[in-house]
Amino acid sequence: MRRLRERAIETVLFLAAASSVLVTIGIVGILVTESMPFFAHVSLKDFLTDTQWTPLFENARYGILPLLSGTLLSTVIALSVAIPLGTVAAAFLSEYVRPSAREILKPVLELLAAVPTVVYGYFALLFVTPLLQKIIPNLGGFNVLSAGIVIGVMIVPYVSSLSEDAMRSVPNHLREASFAVGASRMQTAFRVVIPAAFSGITSAYILGISRALGETMVVAIAAGMQPNLTINPTEPAATITAFIVQVSLGDLPHGSIGYQSIYVAGLSLLVLTLCFNIVGLWLRKKFQEKE
Amino acid sequence: MDSRQELLANIKRRQMWDFAFAMMGLLSLLFALVTLLALIVDLGMTGIPRINAEFFVNFPSRFAEKAGILSAWVGSFLIMVTTAFCAIPLGVAAGVYLEEYSKKNWVSQIIELNIINLAGIPSITYGLMALGLFVYKLKLGQSILTAGLTLGLLVLPIIIVTTREAIRAIPNTIREASYAMGASKWQTIRYHILPYSSGGILTGVIISLSRAIGETAPLITIGALTFIAFLPTPPIDGQFPYLNFNWLMDPFTVMPIQMFNWLSRPQPEFHVNAAATGVVLLVMTLIMNGGAIYLRSRFRKKMKW
Lengths: 291, 305
What we know:
The complex is a heterodimer.
Chain A: H1 2-35, H2 38-41, H3 44-49, H4 65-95, H5 99-114, H6 117-135, H7 144-168, H8 172-180, H9 185-196, H10 198-214, H11 217-222, H12 240-249, H13 257-287
Helix pairs in contact in A: 1-13, 4-7, 4-10, 5-7, 6-7, 7-10, 8-9, 10-13, 12-13
Chain B: H1 2-47, H2 53-57, H3 70-101, H4 106-120, H5 123-137, H6 144-168, H7 172-180, H8 185-214, H9 217-221, H10 255-263, H11 268-302
Helix pairs in contact in B: 1-11, 3-6, 3-8, 3-10, 4-6, 5-6, 6-8, 7-8, 8-11, 10-11
């Protein structure tokens, strides 16, 4: 009787754990099945090479490139803020700061990730953009630059917290050996700690990239939602996520081309994220410390 | 003597670099923190004067001065309750299984890899999944239930990971002592592991709910309305059985969507309303996160094994 009960409980708990796999299957399954009808209308070649994305216009064009360029542009700007700031902050917290100060600074830094993204959108549109307009006079009200910078600040804690964990788990005897041969703290950080923690730091970067690629509200509010094939960050643009929001706000009949197009966009986003994850995994394998 | 001077110069140079790098670290931290401060101050200066009692009890309106967030905060609250009901039992159960039961085989490895991957999936794809699955396939409609399920699945990985961390911190001696008294595995978990890890689990629950309350994109995707001037069906009924779950199927709006809606209008008066909503949201998330940080540090100090 007791053994039966134990088995039953174990089975229930296992089902709960397995349900997380069902979520993934659900996401991939729905995205694929709902976007398949789209490719009956549009050839894959048009989708990948057309330079205009206007699925809701009379004269609809279905080229993913403008959305892709917007997404990558905002991600690159975000990363060029988040990776240097996050890495330096992590090295500083792990190698320079006293543990008692770190216990306070790290959670405070993590608050950056807790602020709702829609609030960041407000901040980008009504604080950062006017500030940037003082430096770049002909900057429009909607632009990728301020959205990218704000996303960058927002993902600093994702980069710094995980990197710091990785750096701190580097065994102390490596540091002591480095100090013993006369290296300074900075040399130890750059030549010993960071290389030893590289696989953990890569995971932190990959998570940061995923966040930046998938970030939605900041770009939907501050970047202008205009599909625009450009690499100029002072112009408005639309990202894949912003497009999904824009279409979802309207009336969206099930099975219409607009409905299908958001699934195609979502699928592209997932594939993009997956690509970066695979690259990250490969990097980690390549640089993993050989014991 | 030459080499000695060289050495001294070398040391000096390195110390300078070391100092410069420390300054850079400090500046990076300061930059991030000053940005956070600027955000809070800017939002507060615009939004706080707008907040009064009427702001909380008025429905949205096309007159900015009369508009309030009643339907939005009620919606946010009900969706949080639904999310908690979906995600906590599932997440804690999954965490317990992975930490206490799972053997090192390919099934558990797939589950673990999958949970890591789920954390990297953009939140808006959860919304797309929910639109296809809950709204159109399962016909749950663009309802509070759909929203709660969506956010529940979205925060599930957070609860699983924090539950596992909390359980991992419990030393094996506790388990051995329990088994020695003749307790079964489940009894050990029920009466020892879960109570001792409840602090860590609670931290995860609070963090996941604060994440859910600020989440906007997946709810826009499932078709949340941006203008709602009525409340869901009251959950308490005059007749037997006094509880009424019809509100689960009602349409909804939430605070972030209300804020987004006001923010996307051109008139600055509506931007003030957006800032006020932002202040309410920010205060709630900061309180929840502060609470989680406090809990975490308290339990870390109290539990010395």
